[in-house]
Amino acid sequence: KGEYKKAISYFERALVLHRKNKLPDSANVYQNLGNCYYYLKNSDSAAKYYDTALELYNLTNDMKGKMRMLSNMGNIKLDQNNLTDALALYKQAITMAELLNDKVQIASTLGNMSYIYSDLGDFKKANECCEKALAVSRELKSKKLLEGVFFIYSDACVAAKDFNGAYKNLLASWWLRDSIFNEERDQSIREMETKYETEKKDAQIQLLNSEKEKQFLILLSIVSGLILVIVFSIVLYRRFRIIRSQKQIIEIQKHVVEEKQKEILDSIHYARRIQRSLLPTHKYISKKLTTLIK
Questions:
Q1: pLDDT (0 to 100) of residue 288
Q2: What is the mean pLDDT of the chain?
Q3: Residues ≥6 apart with Cβ < 8 Å to 30
Q4: Nearest to 131 by CA among 107, 147, 155, 115
Q5: Within 10 A of 149 (CB to CB), how many other CB atoms are there?
Q6: Which residue has the higher pLDDT, 127 or 215?
Q7: pLDDT of residue 273
Q8: Calpha distance 114→139 (Å, rounded)
Q9: How far is CA 267 from the centre of its chain?
Q10: Which of 9, 117, 193, 194 could covalently link to 125 via disulfide, CB atoms 3.0 to 4.6 Å apart?
Q11: pLDDT-based confidence at 199, cuts 50/70/90?
């Protein structure tokens, strides 16, 4: 119910826009509003919107739209147990459906007409409607339509006190219902398996992407580490070269100093030798002093 009420609010807003901007095809909006109210079991509001939609479809001569509205209005009358009006609306709807060759609408409308004829006691016409509806449903190869028509046919047989026919048709309806259920179940399983496989593949892709991301981060860490090692090695190598160069310079300077020191010492020694050669010896001085004393 909450979804239908929400849908109504959206359709009402759409209707305002249609009126304000004079947009075409507003009949569909009225029809959808009618459908929402019908499913909410608000027959009066549904009938009001269906009537407006029918008027608009008449203005544009939209046969399909008119057919749908006549059928929907017939459903409301049938729910209200207004059988005469419902039958009249269904007859108009089926005439248009035949002109449009809308076989689904033909089969469903014939089924509804069979209900009415059964309630009115016209079992012959009720059976005729069911037989026609079965023929159209078989032509369409629609299990859902066939299941519904067989169920209606069973009710018609019960009303006519044809219990053998009622049992046969009810059995056919149950068999089709079971077949439809199995098909829908299998379809649901296939969809679930497809969804599971898709999610599984998505998970695998995410895992692969995650692994790739991890590998990339590891590679990036290794490369970054190698770059740091290389940079550190270059810095150390340059430092080593500087230290070695400084050491060589110190060695050279030390050698120069030693050479200079040797030269100075040699000069000092040489000067001493010259000094010693020029100055009288201690023995000579003593001798001279002795001579002078005498």
A1: 59
A2: 83
A3: 15, 49, 50, 52, 53, 56
A4: 107
A5: 30
A6: 127
A7: 67
A8: 19
A9: 100
A10: 117
A11: confident
Structure tokens at 242: 């500087």
User: According to the 3-state scheme, what is the secondary structure of the chain?
Assistant: CHHHHHHHHHHHHHHHHHHHHCCCCHHHHHHHHHHHHHHCCCHHHHHHHHHHHHHHHHHHCCHHHHHHHHHHHHHHHHHCCCHHHHHHHHHHHHHHHHHHCCHHHHHHHHHHHHHHHHHHCCHHHHHHHHHHHHHHHHHHCCHHHHHHHHHHHHHHHHHCCCHHHHHHHHHHHHHHHHHHHHHHHHHHHHHHHHHHHHHHHHHHHHHHHHHHHHHHHHHHHHHHHHHHHHHHHHHHHHHHHHHHHHHHHHHHHHHHHHHHHHHHHHHHHHHHHHHHHHCCCHHHHHHHHHHHHC
Judge whether residue 272 has pLDDT over 80.
no
* Residue-level pLDDT at 123: 92
Q: What is the 3-state secondary structure (H, E, C) of 40-65?
A: CCCHHHHHHHHHHHHHHHHHHCCHHH
Contacts of 85 (CB under 8 A, 6+ apart): 74, 77
Cα(252)–Cα(96) distance, rounded to whole angstroms?
A: 119
Structure tokens at 95: 């005439």
What's the one-letter identity of residue 98?
E
Q: Measure the CA–CA gap between 79 and 105, rounded to whole angstroms.
A: 18
Token pair listed for 240 = 């080593």
pLDDT digits (tens, 9 = 90+) for 37-48: 999 999 999 999
